[in-house]
Amino acid sequence: MNPTEIFEAIEAIARAPFDAGEFPFAFAEATDNAKATISKLRNGTTNKSDLPGGVLVARKFHYAPALRGMTDVTLDALRGSKRTATAKPAILIATDGETVAAEHRASGDTLHCRFDEIGDHFGFFLPAAGKERYRAVEENPIDVKATGKLARLYDALVKANPDWATDARRHEMNQLMMRLIFCLFAEDVGIFPYNQFSRLVFSHAGNKGEEAREAILAAFRAMNLPKDRRAGLPAWTAELEYVNGGLFASGIDAPVFDPVAFRYLKDAAALNWREINPDIFGSMIQSVADPKQRAELGMHYTSVPNIMKVIGPLFLDDLDAEIEKAWDRPNGLRRALSRMAGMRVFDPACGSGNFLVVSYRELRARETRILQRIAELEGSTQVQMWSAIPITNFYGIELDDFAAETAKLALFISEYQANARFGEVFGQMPATLPLKEAARITCGNALRLNWDIVCPPPGEGEQVFIAGNPPFLGDNSRTDEQNADMEHVLAGTLDSYKRIDFVSCWMFKAANYTRGRSARSALVATNSICQGQSVGALWPHILVDGIEIGFAHTSFKWRNNASANAAVICVIVGLRNESRERKRLFSGDLGAVVSTINAYLLDGPNLFIHAEARSIFGLPYMEYGNKPTDDGNLILSEVEKDDLLSEYPEASRFVKKFMGSDEVVNGKVRYCLWVPDQDADEAAAIPALRARFDRVAAFRAASKAAQTRPAAAFPHRFRQAQNWARSHAILVPSVSSERRPYLPVERVGADVIPSNLNQVLYDAPDWCLALIASRLHLVWIATVCGKLKSDFRYSNTMGWNTFPVPHFTQDQLEQLSASARRIMKTRWSHYPATIAELYDPERMPDDLRQAHKENDDLLESMYIGRPFRNDTERLEKLFKLYAARMKQEAAA
DNA sequence: GATCCGACAGCTG
DNA sequence: CAGCTGTCGGATC
């Protein structure tokens, strides 16, 4: 159940007559417990409560009925209950049917309200449904309630009017929803006389909405016409205001309301729309037209703090500094005002308009403050009495029609709210109606549209700021159409673009728009575009012809107030034309002024590390492990191996130890079937193996990967059986935790088959291990390789093959080998501790730490004659060596 | 033939 | 649920 559904279920309880015995089961149902759980609760088998009439569901809630007027006493009893202590319910709830007293145990927050109001506080009860507390909901439940009502209305309308669900009519349907929302908002905030729209429509719509369509159509048509031009419309529409502003200008139609849809419309009208928050409301409401998004409910909307991370350094911080500097000088303040009037904000992936709404609100707030200050300084009332920041300075592109319509509406609502605040301060507010022009939202594909046409380039005295959070999609999750969009944008400029993220297209177009103009841009992106292969593929084509990174936020975890957050790590990159202004690099909440920001978002030289097939410093060949592509059928757990061998001892010659990252890092044990081609028939004669091979063949044959399908012909073998050791192998897990102070690396015997989750040095000397286990190497890998979210990802081509080393003498190599063996020996002395345990930053044994320290000191003295002071110094040296090597190669 | 990536995925506490 | 940490195999070079 999503929050909307939980709200509706709790509200239904609030409306129904109270029954002390029935309430806890209804509450359990409303908070997402399975039917079976509830019936077990009813017959008492799982009820753990120790209070009379109480019901306790472990980790969810503990309820007890209260005597009239005694809810607080009962809540106290719940707090003191032994069973509360053992079963750890999230929520305690006591009620007498009149009032409710409840507590959220983790925070100690309490709730006291009338029983029939519990629907309004449903956010408080979400923890009883196993959901985290949902701050946005508790602060502003109206947004979720409105979303729920509108979603029901939308569904009911589509059901009653199947033709309105077609692509051809979707835009009209979306417009209808926006018009209705506008009217409901307008009549609640005083744009229309209170309740005017619903009063008129509902009194002419018939009892069950038989005439609702005609009434709504008449009302909409009237609002598009000045009052003196409404001949031909029903007389009752004369009362309605002239709205216009484009909202009612085009294609007025309405679907038929059946009794169900009509009831939902009435429910929606009953909400207090004054309270809605356009920041969040816009995002939530997007889910109305898209049932898939309802479960996610705002998963991808950008939170206000994250928007501020973008627009702060992009333009607000500079503006604030300017205002601050001119604070005592009316002329300076007027200059700031006139600059603000020329500032345009353009979000080329605007969704429901979050960035535009927040930008608009922030600019209007500053304008109001400046006007107040000017009035104060000049002691007169002769200040400009109206805002010079037009809503038409806000531009957006959005693919989804419903979201685009929402963005327009959200901006309209923000404009109204900003004007109302202006009115509070200056005692006068302009006439709201008829609406003036609206924000410039274009519904279309940002990767196909010419941005210069959507948002004309800045003229004299103007600045354009591109800001937004475009979609992230890796190469495995794009549609054919999206791939075609990428080709359209990037082919011809980028040599290889297919493996970089979709969001790169926006970054690229933003750079092109910005270049050579009075413009700047800043976009949220997945951190992968500033790591690994993407860096060399993308950034050399952005940071050219005068474009530089003016500010950036390094990786941060995506978070907003939605109940489910997207699992992704983001960066923000601000682009501008080369400038002497400061550059700012933010890590978390800390910002630093730096001299250059490179494509890795580091304060360092503007350098792109490219993948290499072999080490450019002459290190041994490291290669990718063996990839099964077997749906698990060539892999055996310890138990499976034992079962197999006890039944078919002759299979033992086909079974080998199999190690991936997990096996190296966490000491897990797995086996694989490793059958030489000439023994394929013999192996297939063993029924258990034959069954496994058949499953492999079926799985591969059904694959959509071109390389996998032919491998169905040799199911006894890995799809890619690359190599194996003659005497020993050094394994480097390809993914491992970012918390460790050193990269995991392990030396194994020839009996082990390394999986593709390791990079492998076969039969290589021990000094290689000393390099990989060094701090220098970790710093290099962390910088130039990709990441999995924020964890280290080891690549042979980009990490090992580019790793700069000085020329080692034979003697030095022997010293390093000895050092590597000391590290291994120290690890063995802690047997059976795993690498994960040994390298836990909190619990790393002192002797192992010491062995690594000695290894680092030894290796580093071979670079510069002494240990490095810190990682910055390490990286500087490595970059220098890399650059020198590249120069040498270019010369050769 | 070889390998980088995942608006993640699976496990644990 | 929320934090932690690396599977698996497609797609691309």
From TrEMBL:
**Domain MmeI-like DNA-methyltransferase, first and last residues per copy:** 324-586
Task: Drop me one GO molecular function for this one.
Answer: site-specific DNA-methyltransferase (adenine-specific) activity
One GO biological process term: methylation
Q: Which Gene3D superfamilies match?
A: Vaccinia Virus protein VP39
Ranges for domain MmeI-like N-terminal come to: 1-159
Q: Where is the MmeI-like helicase spacer domain?
A: 171-248
- Decide whether keyword 4Fe-4S is in the record: no
Enzyme class, broadest EC rank:
transferase
Instruction: Report which reactions are catalysed by this protein.
Output: a 2'-deoxyadenosine in DNA + S-adenosyl-L-methionine = an N(6)-methyl-2'-deoxyadenosine in DNA + S-adenosyl-L-homocysteine + H(+)
InterPro entries, per the entry:
MmeI_C, MmeI_hel, MmeI_Mtase, MmeI_N, MmeI_TRD, N4_N6_ade-DNA_methylase, SAM-dependent_MTases_sf
Transmembrane stretches, by residue range? none
Q: Name one Pfam family in it.
A: MmeI_hel
Domain MmeI-like C-terminal, chain residue ranges per copy: 811-883
- Per the UniProt entry, the Enzyme Commission number(s) are 2.1.1.72
Domain MmeI-like target recognition: start-end pairs: 603-807
The answer, when asked if Methyltransferase is one of the entry's keywords, is yes
- Keyword annotations from UniProtKB, A to Z: Methyltransferase, Transferase
Give the protein name, as stated in the record. Answer: site-specific DNA-methyltransferase (adenine-specific)
Q: Which organism is it from?
A: Halovulum dunhuangense
